[in-house]
Structure formats: C-alpha cells, structure tokens
Design a protein that fits this description.
Layout: E1 3-8, H1 16-19, H2 25-37, E2 41-45, H3 48-56, E3 66-71, H4 83-91, H5 100-107, H6 109-117, E4 127-129, E5 142-146, E6 160-161, H7 164-178, E7 181-185, E8 191-199, E9 202-205, E10 209-212, E11 231-233, H8 238-255, E12 259-268, E13 271-278, H9 289-296, H10 301-318, H11 323-328
Family: Belongs to the D-alanine--D-alanine ligase family.
InterPro entries: ATP-grasp (IPR011761), ATP_grasp_subdomain_1 (IPR013815), Dala_Dala_lig_C (IPR011095)
Domain ATP-grasp: 113-310
C-alpha cells in the first residue's frame, strides 16, 4: 500500500497574521479521511523536525511508494513554499505540486510578472519598494501589496492609494510589516481566477470564474477559515474564457509547473491583466477556490485529491530532476 504524508502547517487563531495561509484543522482532517478512502495510508505531520525525520527514515527501497502532499506555507522566508519540494527531490521521494524553483519564483510577485511579461503575457506595470524611500513611478490611483504573501495577507481597502498624502500616511506601516512591497496601478475591474491541473505536456484548464467579494479589495478578512465568503460567478463570456484558457496554458508551460496552480487576473475595459500565480493553492473543501473550480467540471473532491496524487507519482517517474535523489538510494 502507498503512503501519503500530509506535511502541513495548521492555522493558529492566536497568531492569524503569520498563519493566514495555513490550512485549518478541519481541512486537514477532511483531506486525511478522503485520501484514506482512496486506498492510501495517511500520516499527518506539522512539525519540521518530525517531517524531516520521518522522510529520512523511510527505507530507501520504499521511498517510491511514499508521497508528500506539500501544504507547508511557513512564514517570512522567500523560500518557504519550496522547503518540501527541495527536500523530497534531494531524498528521492515523490511529492505533490511543483518543484522548488517554481515555488520560489511564484512567491515573488514582481519577479513572476517580469518573467512572464518578457514572453508577452499582459500585466500592468509595477514597481518594487525595497527600502521604503523610493520615489513613486506610477501615477495615482495605485494599489500596494506585500510582494511575497498570499491569502490576501496585508491587504485591505486602505491599500488603494489615491494621493501623496495617503502614500505618506499608509505606506510606512505597511512597509515595516511586509517589506518588500509591490506597487501597481489600481485596476477597478472584476477579478477572474483560473486553475491548471496536470504535468508539463498535458495540462487542463478548469472552468474559469469571476471572483466577487463584498469590498473594493479582496482583503484578508474575506479569507475565512470557516466558510467561503467570496462568490464565484461562472458566467464568463466565451471570448474572455477562451483568452484566459490560452494564457493560463501558456503560463503553466513557461513556468514548467506540475500538479496544479491557480492564476489570478483582473479585467479592465475588456483587457485582461495577469496578477499572480499561486503554486501552493488551498485544498480546503470549505474555503478554497481550486476545489470549487474542479467540482464545477463535474468531478468530486475525492477525484481532485486522487488526481493530484497520481500527478505527483507520475512526475517522480519521468522527471530528471529526481535523478540525483534516486541515485543516492540505489
């Protein structure tokens, strides 16, 4: 029997700022029982020492029969979403999701935009605030956000800045907590989201949706761990859906993603602008977007988890990036 190690950070209500991206206990429990129903043994660990000890302790001859589901988000480090993929690759153990280079790049919104823009992906111009003293190069109104956070951490309606006075009042506090910051023109149009499943050479774009929310911005208060507060509208015009499907496939191929990603866009005057990529999206059946996009295609949550695990094992078998780890355990 194959074994799934759910490597996770579990959301801590006493420290919501640092753990905003982490999954809830209920989500982990539901994932565990669903994966068990698929015929796997499941081990759940949420401590770095326990995870690394467990992985290094797997008999070398049996490592191909284990897979690590990467739900580690960490905090503060620009490498935090790459911990598990790098470790698994090094030890010769399958894992879900993309490799460490994809995880590290996509966590940096500014670098991702520059990279994809160089291949013709349409995105708004942006400016990185590294020191807090840079002169603003983008005209007001602007939108400012943490460059390396997800789950709308550090975002509120106050991040829309319309004047120099607002800049001077709001940016220092935000910079002190979340530097570096990314500045973009404020785009008031609707947000869209797309998810791509698959490994390179065989990608599938899930149904595309508008993301509506009861505020000017998709802020951290909307990202509830108990319910899905935003709403998804799948009534996307065919011309826009086709364009997003093509762009999302292009992005997946350019990044070389594996397993799954979610991509966010903004629509303004019928122009679509790429916003960011999430290579470690949430998998909660309660509050995460990707499972809802999957289920819109007519497939169950259990089928989503099954597919994600199969893609991880497939990636391990065919990708040369695992060869060094495999050679160490011969």
């Amino acid at each position: 029997m194959k074994t799934v190690l759910l490597a996770c950070d579990i959301y801590d209500q006493t420290n919501p700022k640092l753990s905003q991206e982490w999954e809830s206990f209920d989500t982990i429990s539901h994932m565990e029982s669903t994966i068990e129903s698929l015929g796997y043994e499941v081990v759940v660990l949420n401590n770095a020492t326990e995870i690394t000890s467990a992985l290094s302790g797997i008999p070398k001859s049996n490592r191909k029969n284990w897979i690590v589901w990467n739900l580690i988000e960490g905090y503060l480090s620009p490498s935090r979403e790459a911990y598990i993929p790098a470790l698994c690759e090094y030890l010769g153990i399958p894992h879900t999701g993309s490799h460490a280079a994809v995880q590290t790049l996509t966590l940096d919104k500014y670098k991702t935009k520059l990279y994809l823009e160089s291949f013709g992906i349409k995105t708004s111009k942006s400016q990185l605030i590294l020191h807090g003293s840079e002169s603003l190069k983008i005209p007001y109104p602007i939108f400012i956000k943490p460059n390396g956070e997800g789950s709308s951490l550090g975002i509120s309606d106050q991040n829309i800045i319309r004047s120099e006075m607002e800049w001077k009042l709001r940016v220092p506090n935000l910079f002190n907590e979340y530097a570096p910051l990314l500045v973009e023109p404020y785009i008031s149009g609707r947000e869209l989201t797309a998810a791509v499943m698959g490994n390179q050479g065989s990608y599938e774009v899930l149904p595309i949706a508008y993301v509506d929310y009861p505020s000017e911005t998709y802020h951290e208060g909307i990202k509830s761990k108990s319910e899905f507060l935003e709403s998804l509208d799948f009534q996307v015009p065919k011309s826009i859906a086709n364009q997003l499907q093509e762009t999302s496939l292009q992005i997946a191929n350019l990044l070389g993603v594996s397993g799954y990603i979610r991509i966010d866009y903004k629509l303004e005057d019928q122009s679509i602008y790429f916003l960011e990529v999430n290579a470690t999206p949430g998998f909660s059946a309660i509050y995460s977007t990707l499972p809802l996009l999957w289920e819109k295609s007519g497939r169950s949550y259990a089928e989503l988890l099954k597919k994600s695990l199969e893609l991880g094992f497939e990636e391990f078998l065919i990708q040369k990036r695992f060869q060094y780890g495999k050679d160490q355990i011969k």
